[in-house]
Amino acid sequence: MISVSGLSFTYKGASAPALNGVSFEVPPASVYGLLGPSGAGKSTTQKILMGLLRGYGGTANVFGEAPARSGRAFYERIGVSFELPALYGRLTARENLALFAALYADAPLAPEAVLDMVDLRDAADQRVEGFSKGMKMRLNLARALLNDPQLLFLDEPTTGQDPARARVTRQLISDLRARGKTVFLTTHNMSEAAQICDCVGFLVDGAIALEGTPADLMVRFGKPELVATARRNGTLVTETFAMDGLATDSAFQALLQTGDIVSLHTREASLDDIFVAVAGGRQ
Asked: Does the keyword NAD apply (predicted)?
């Protein structure tokens, strides 16, 4: 779906390139998360993939060809949801979607259908100027779904949403993948990326510093330890044991015999831990 090789780009007047040899691939029906600190080049990469920036080095192909050469038909096949919603405040949610649907040659989904998908049907006839930030973000996502796109570019899709609404949005993204859609996601929410991405790439100083599945990376950067939580005298206590010596560790074996264990888990790294390890102190 997306193939990027040796991608480089330098803004006019800049002393250093925004992108410096970026390479990755995104297969169909998957969620790819481009992660990294602010200024790493995530937005630049997105703009190139959406055909909004030219003059780059290397190759960037979407649907098998360079986006900048694809013409209007390219935008009939993609959906875009920016971090800052682009909506008309004096129009209702339904009116906003009807307006944007009219921009497509063929918008197969009705406003009511996409409002249902983002759980905004009850607010269909309310003016957007009265929406919370989270509601605007959900409406922005609904707008990106109007043309039933094959490829979605999502930037911080759950910004401003409470945990329940954010869970609905993550489930929607998973449902879209199950329907064969491809999602290119940029976010600073590492927990979210770990839950919904099939593969993540950490972009640091204009290059992919690390790439892999969240599960593999969390194991790779984790510690070979087992964390045991047990209840003793009505209090929960935690002990850590080396994985390679569990069979002969007398303290661990004694703990197993007590029957007081509440939980056991290996010490994987979180994507937050990996972000810090890869990006250092960058924000």
From this structure: no
Q: Which two tokens stand for residue 151?
A: 């490829």
Instruction: Select 2-215's CATH number: 3.30.10.20, 1.25.40.10, 3.30.70.270, 3.40.50.300.
Output: 3.40.50.300
Task: Name the 3-class secondary structure at 147.
Answer: coil
- pLDDT at position 282: 56
Instruction: Give the integer Cα–Cα distance in Å for 217 and 140.
Output: 32
C-alpha to C-alpha distance for 15 and 26, rounded to whole angstroms: 30
Burial of 198 (0-12, 13-18, 19+ CB in 10 A): middle
State how far the Cα of 283 lies from the Cα of 279, in Å rounded to an integer.
8
Instruction: Provide the token pair at 231.
Output: 């209840």
Q: What is the DSSP string of 180-233?
A: T-EEEEE-S-HHHHHHH-SEEEEEETTEEEEEE-HHHHHHHTSEEEEEEEEEET
Q: Where are the beta strands (DSSP E) in the chain?
A: 2-9, 19-26, 31-35, 57-62, 78-81, 151-155, 182-186, 199-204, 207-212, 223-232, 235-242, 261-267
Phi, psi of 186 (to 5 degrees): -120, 135
Crossing angle for the helix pair 163-178 and 133-145, to the nearest 10 degrees? 10
Please provide the distance, in angstroms rounded to a whole number, between the alpha carbons at the two ends of the chain: 30
Q: Average pLDDT of 185-205?
A: 94
Rounded CA separation 258/33 (Å): 44
251-277 confidence digits (pLDDT tens):
888 888 887 889 988 888 899 999 999
